[in-house]
Write a structure and sequence with these properties.
147 residues, alpha+beta, Alpha-Beta Plaits, four-stranded antiparallel β-sheet, 6 helices, 4 strands, elongated
């Protein structure tokens, strides 16, 4: 996998280098985020944990991809700026599974129940809304009319 840098800009406010890359991957599929992350880290002398692949676009049937990559100066700055789903996407598959399991366990915690006073108020409102059905007279049958 070879890549060429189309655009390289430094964002001092977010303390990151924003890269736009062209990746050639002949006779291979689209590059994985982990492989691209490692290649960019070695080229820019950065740690892999500071490199985040934001997007990879590969036109159908081509052996060329366009990528957006961000290289942060500090891993703490990256954790604050990069969305959580992008952070998870850039992890190796084993670590990604662990993170998903951890988030599922956190979501499975029981939710707090409603206070009883609020539940009683809700029942009273339902009772007020339900009105007694009015009795309607049904038309007399033909037999009663003839008598």
């Amino acid at each position: 996998m070879e890549f060429k840098v189309k655009q390289d800009t430094y964002n001092p406010l977010l303390k990151r280098k924003e890269l736009s890359l062209d990746v050639d991957h002949e006779r291979e599929g689209s590059p994985s985020r982990v492989a691209l992350r490692d290649a960019v880290a070695t080229r820019y002398n950065a740690k892999a944990e500071n490199v985040f692949v934001m997007q990879i676009q590969t036109p159908t049937g081509s052996q060329h991809s366009s990528c957006e990559v961000q290289v942060y100066d500090d891993p703490e700055a990256a954790r604050q700026v990069v969305p959580k789903h992008i952070q998870i996407r850039n992890l190796p598959s084993e670590e990604r599974k662990k993170m998903r399991e951890a988030t599922k366990k956190a979501e499975e915690k029981p939710k707090a129940e409603k206070p009883k006073a609020a539940a009683k108020a809700g029942k009273e409102e339902k009772g007020k809304q339900e009105a007694k059905p009015t009795e309607t007279k049904q038309p007399a049958s033909k037999e009663s009319e003839t008598k």
